[in-house]
Write a structure and sequence with these properties.
By secondary structure, the chain is α/β, with parallel strands linked by helices. It has an eight-stranded mixed sheet, with helices on both faces. The longest helix is centred in the first third of the chain and has 17 residues, at 110-126. The structure holds ligand 6R9. Residues 262, 307-309, 384-387, 409-414, 435, 496, 498, 510, 513, 605 line the site of ligand 6R9.
Length: 647
């Protein structure tokens, strides 16, 4: 991409914080001002809220940039902040209300969680696993996945969680890159009433040469599994009889807490490396202030622990704040499409954190589903993973939040570890579709291709100007790639790869990945703005647009649209959508073609894969499809694309 990104979409709706929020919120104006005056002092204060074994004396060490170090002479074990320190006063507090897909439930108090973590940590040690040994975790969303992550942290063994929906090849590749010594898995996982054979996938991933010496298996689905004596261990047998306490490994703040692989747009997956002290500081601070957690809250993040959102905002952030959370094992449409709303009502969920892809799916399924349930316990909503289109924001606000809940649209990445651009619910006036402002202590801006800050009203590249505690430390095994990918485009600044615009009040509006920006007749158009204009039409639930090469305009906009409920796409609606985009944001953004489809190709974490839609539009062989969640839809779209109308 060269030149600025056009700023086309205008949004006039405003939602100031209520008086209740303003007065009761954890984060007030004072905190914003304090962080702005002295960011390092702010972060030091946030870090001091954790349990340290040896307090740090230095906040930031920038002598070897971009290999920054935070709180580097401090020592701690993160599980003491997440568990031990809560026991005296809040041992009986529920850490997790867990619900299985078949409907079975478990309630786990902080005391119980501490006990299970200690026993499993002792079990791991009994197998000779300890500080510095990487342990892969390949499981469904059962309570033991949290136990496994924390048990690794307890003994200083970095975990590498591999999403349970990934294939054995993906697991094999990540095991090899991380040098995993053990794999923790389940016999199977429940997904829409069927068993996903996790243990079988592990067996395949370990065939041939491997660094893995032990496989620990949680019983969940009770399906038949193959067994390799000496290598395989049942989880329940391993923990049985283990001591109920476990001396934590004392870690340096900068030691590796975990590796999490992120695919990025090309090339082999990057093993993002996160630290102990800085990471926990970032996630616990943002969790407290963005989700405004209070003692009587019931918080539910619908992510999977296989993604960074699960690491930061199911496990480490909530537990460091002694929060009570809900975990749900299964799919949102099992047995019915209102499973989420039944869960909110039955657990009295007060804070709900989910993704735009889920919200747009719920819009498609229909308003009557949430309307069946009493959602009045909710007081705060969150969004993460993709830009949330203003109409999806409004739907979430009205149909889920009852018109009374602030929505925190949180921008961040696997690499940033914690939320970076976000409203603070007691401080920020919300604008539907904007992630609003950088979190206190975060110095972000929008720049043009030379690195000059763009003026309000302009669009360009998002950058972070100074380091922050929860930032990635490197790409595992490839520090040069770390420097190259994130720190070379704008020297001295972190480049996340996202486009962004600033409005007149310097609010940030994320515009999607810069690789997806379309160049139409000399104008850089963001996919997000055209998609939002489409989603703004009452018949549309979800839209993806891509630039397809065009001899006349350079690129032409190809749109793929899913409709709400039982609406059907026809020529009349197609023309109506084209004019809707033209009136909403301008004739330049009018799609040249529109394909109606029942679904869009998505990654397994729910992000639209525009790259594949480009391949389809330009009638190319499809590129890498291994991270695709719904492969059947690609054929359907390809057939549809051949018959769609064009100008
Ligand atoms: C947490 C997570 C990171 C990429 C990021 C951006 C997109 C995430 C967003 C958002 C607009 C938001 N993204 N949150 N875009 N608004 N609130 O999703 O991490 O899986 O590493 O993805 O997701 O493009 O660069 P990760």
């Amino acid at each position: 991409m060269s030149g600025a990104i056009e700023n086309l979409f205008h949004e006039d709706r405003r939602f100031p914080p209520s008086d209740v929020m303003k007065n009761g919120a954890n984060a007030k104006e004072e905190l914003v001002a304090r962080a702005a005056a002295d960011p390092l002092a702010f972060w030091a204060g946030e870090a001091e809220k954790l349990a340290w074994r040896k307090p740090f004396t230095q906040v930031l060490d920038d002598s070897d940039a971009p290999f920054y170090r935070w709180f580097a002479d401090g020592t701690l074990n993160v599980t003491e902040s997440c568990l031990d320190r809560h026991l005296a006063e809040h041992g009986d507090r529920v850490a997790f209300h867990w619900e299985g897909e078949p409907g079975d439930t478990r309630e786990i108090s902080y005391r119980q969680l501490h006990l299970e973590v200690c026993q499993f940590a002792n079990g791991l040690r009994s197998l000779g696993i300890g500080k510095g040994d990487t342990v892969a975790i390949y499981m469904g969303m059962v309570p033991e996945i949290v136990v496994a992550m924390l048990a690794c942290a307890r003994i200083g063994a970095p975990h590498s969680v591999v999403f349970g929906g990934f294939s054995s090849d993906a697991l094999r590749e990540r095991n090899a890159d991380a040098n995993s010594k053990a794999v923790i898995t389940c016999d199977g996982a429940w997904r829409r009433g069927k068993v996903v054979p996790l243990k079988e996938n592990v067996d395949v991933a370990l065939e041939g040469e491997t660094t893995v010496e032990h496989v620990i298996v949680v019983r969940r689905t009770e399906n038949e599994v193959q067994w390799t004596d000496g290598r395989d261990h049942w989880f329940d047998e391993l923990v049985q009889g283990q001591p109920e306490t476990c001396e934590p490994e004392i870690m340096n703040a900068e030691d590796l807490l975990y590796i999490l692989y992120t695919s990025g747009s090309t090339g082999k997956p990057k093993g993002i490396a996160h630290s102990q002290g800085g990471y926990l500081t970032g996630v616990s601070s943002t969790f407290r202030n963005v989700f405004d957690i209070h003692d009587d809250d019931v918080y539910w993040c619908t992510a999977d622990c296989g993604w960074v959102t699960g690491h930061s905002y199911i496990v480490y952030g909530p537990l460091a704040n002694c929060a009570t959370s809900v975990i749900y094992e299964g799919s949102p449409d099992y047995p019915d499409q209102d499973r989420f709303w039944a869960l909110v009502a039955s657990h009295g969920v007060t804070i709900l954190y989910t993704a735009p892809t889920a919200i747009r799916t719920f819009m498609k399924w229909g308003d009557h589903l949430p309307a069946r349930h009493d959602l009045s316990s909710l007081r705060l909503l969150g969004s993460v993973g993709e830009p949330i289109n203003p109409e999806a924001w409004m739907w979430y606000h009205e149909h889920i939040g009852g018109g009374k809940c602030p929505i925190v649209d949180t921008w961040w990445q696997t690499e940033t570890g914690a939320i970076m651009i976000t409203p603070l619910p007691g401080v920020t006036t919300l604008k539907p579709g904007s992630a609003t402002r950088p979190y206190p202590g975060i110095d972000a801006s929008v720049v043009d291709e030379e690195g000059n800050e763009v003026a309000p009203g302009g669009g360009g590249f998002l950058v972070v100007n100074s380091p922050w505690p929860s930032m990635l430390r490197t790409i595992h095994g490839d520090p040069e790639r770390y420097r190259e990918v994130y720190w070379s485009r704008f020297p001295g600044r972190y480049f996340p790869g996202d486009g962004c615009k600033l409005d007149e009040e310097s609010y940030f509006w994320l515009l999607g990945r810069v690789d997806d920006v379309m160049l139409v007749s000399g104008h850089n158009l963001s996919t997000t703005e055209v998609e939002s204009a489409l989603v703004d039409h009452p018949a549309v639930a979800e839209a993806a647009v891509v630039g397809r090469s065009d001899p006349r305009t350079g690129q032409a906009i190809a749109a793929f649209v899913t409709l709400k409920g039982d609406r059907v796409g026809n020529e009349e609606l197609l023309q109506e959508l084209r004019s809707h985009v033209a009136t909403k944001i301008g004739p330049i953004a009018k799609p040249a073609s529109i394909v109606f489809t029942s679904d869009l190709p998505k990654t397994r974490s729910g992000k639209i894969m525009r790259r594949l839609l480009r391949d389809i539009s330009e009638k190319r062989q499809l590129g890498d499809v291994t991270t695709l969640a719904n492969s059947e839809i690609v054929e359907a779209i390809r057939d549809g694309a051949q018959t769609s109308k064009e100008d």
